[in-house]
């Protein structure tokens, strides 16, 4: 049987902390803005009790869940990803000509041609990342 590493909380003290903060599921920007100073105050505290750690974790999760719902990022297309990676490396599409061929690079970046699996492998090797994002872009 595995032993638990979760610290035992003083339920009375944790209840007092919860009563002061009144955590709720964050549904508005205003609620999130009210929550952030409470999170920051707990984070700045040098020595937190296990109860304060638990409260900090709860408040951070509530804020993170709201922000994830509110500020969803649009998934990048393979062409956008290639442009981004080239830009990060201070390269141009011309640097991919030896990898994919001049016309293929142009077609992929213009969106008129999809990246094949073999091209994705080559792109992954070139950029030093998994080939998956080039072949299986996330749903938009």
Provide a descriptive summary of the structure in words.
By secondary structure, the protein is mainly α. The protein has two domains: 11-70; 78-135, lambda repressor-like DNA-binding domains (434 Repressor (Amino-terminal Domain), Orthogonal Bundle), CATH 1.10.260. It contains eight helices and no strands. Helix 1 (11-21) packs parallel to helix 3 (50-70). It is elongated. The chain starts with 10 loop residues before the first helix and ends in a 5-residue tail after the last helix. The model has no long low-confidence stretch (mean pLDDT 89).
How do the strands and helices of this protein lay out in sequence?
Blueprint: H1 11-21, H2 29-44, H3 50-70, H4 78-88, H5 97-100, H6 102-110, H7 117-127, H8 132-135
Helix pairs in contact: 1-3, 2-3
Task: Kindly summarize this structure in a few lines.
The protein has helices spanning 11-21, 29-44, 50-70, 78-88, 97-100, 102-110, 117-127, 132-135.
Whole-number total of structural domains: 2
Oligomer: single chain
Query: What best-fitting shape do the alpha-carbon axes yield?
Result: elongated
| Strand content bin | under 5%
Largest sheet: none
What is the arithmetic mean of pLDDT?
A: 89
| Number of separate helices | 8
Structural class: mainly alpha
Kindly report how far apart the N and C termini lie.
44 Å
The low-confidence runs, each spanning 5 or more residues with pLDDT under 50, are none
Brief descriptors of the model:
8 helices; 140 residues; mainly alpha; 434 Repressor (Amino-terminal Domain); 2 domains
